[in-house]
Amino acid sequence: MTLRGTTAVAGVAESDLGEVAPGLTPLDLVGQATTRALADAGIPKSDVDGLFTASSYYPMSGMDTAEYLGIHPSYVDGSTIGGSSFVSHLLHAAAAIEAGLCSTALIVYGSTQRSDGGRLVSPSKPNPYEAPYKPRYPISMYAMAAARHMHEYGTTREQLADVAVAARQWAQLNPAAFERGPLSRQDVLDARMISDPLTTRDCCLVTDGGGAVVLTSAERARDLAATPAYLLGAGEATWHRNISEMPDLTTTAARDSGRRAFAMAGLGPQDIDVVELYDAFTINPVLFLEDLGFCAKGEGGPFVAEGMIAPGGKLPVNTNGGGLSYCHPGMYGIFTIIEAVRQLRGTCGERQVPGAETAVAHGNGGVLSSQVTAVFGTAATL
Q: Domain Thiolase C-terminal, which positions (predicted)?
């Protein structure tokens, strides 16, 4: 069985972003995003019979979310694999729709991390084998990957800084981005060091925010209000949970998730027009560009430094500004989907990639632990 082109995203939306009004809860932001995404799709809430969600705030997020939204889904998936959960939910929802277990799937997320003082809400217990060394979770883990990549391939701090600069250049074209001021390579290098070699500007934002995605059958999506973005392929992979068990700090499971997604889609990296990557730290896009096949292993740094991912570059990456400049409310994966869909619809205004027909949304969870890749296309790609 192939899921290629059997389902399509019919609606997407964010909640209010940045620092929301005092007293709002993560579920309030889920409600905002859901209302807007259903309106975008032209689908009534009563049609939603599949619910897919993950949360650091609510251990039984499926039940809490269904209750808050006032829906009675026949299929619920609360799988949590970190920030990649929502890209994973796309694959699970497509399979459920194809199997007849539900017909209209709602994928949602909400967080008030910034209003909560920036505290990272995590249900995980410290790893007893790593905790004695007092790492700063999760930045120390990503700093280790960055340092190893620098050691093995000659990647430089300047090249990592260029990832943040490119993200800011895209954010300056996005009115919804949290940070839109000028940012230079030197600004990133001179920022306060947090975990060597990563400074504050190598790190994602801390914001509030929520998102919602409505997935339904391709046949139904064609008759709805918004232009559909068809799910052509998806793949997921998990190699480890803790960074001390990562087989190779310079290679992620995106190598497997991307291979599976591209195989289902019948496409390769060379066929992709726009890429949305989970950029919790500047090392992430470098690793994912390599592991997904957009450049060779070890060439991610020079690829970025040559302006390839910035506006006007050969491969538009994180066109909304990414987690580094647009928003990052704890788990970012759902926003890669939202931006990929909008690019294929051609509704992104100044940041629109001309003629975009294919897009990748890639999620990362844990400490480079879970990787999930989705490939989308317009009707022309079917």
A: 235-378
- Three-state secondary structure call for residue 234: strand
**Residue closest to 197 by CA, chosen among 76, 118, 301:** 301
* Structural domain 7-116+206-381, CATH architecture: 3-Layer(aba) Sandwich (3.40)
> Are residues 320 and 337 in contact, defined by beta-carbon separation less than 8 angstroms?
no
Cβ-Cβ contacts under 8 Å for 319 (sequence gap 6 or more)? 170, 173, 174, 274, 276, 339, 343, 348, 351, 353
Strand segments, DSSP code E, in the chain are 7-14, 50-53, 75-77, 104-111, 193-195, 198-199, 209-217, 229-238, 274-277, 358-365, 370-377
Q: How far apart are CA 378 and CA 18, in angstroms?
A: 31
pLDDT of amino acid 124: 65
Q: What is the pLDDT of residue 270?
A: 98
Q: Give pLDDT, residue 122.
A: 59
Do the beta carbons of residue 162 and residue 304 sit within 8 Å? Answer: yes
125: Cβ contacts below 8 Å, ≥ 6 apart:
none
Q: Are 47 and 223 in contact (CB under 8 A)?
A: no
Quote the pLDDT of residue 295: 98
Residue matched to tokens 């003082």: 117
Burial of 187 (0-12, 13-18, 19+ CB in 10 A): middle
Given a cut of 70, the residues of the chain with pLDDT beneath it are 1, 119-124
pTM of the model: 0.97
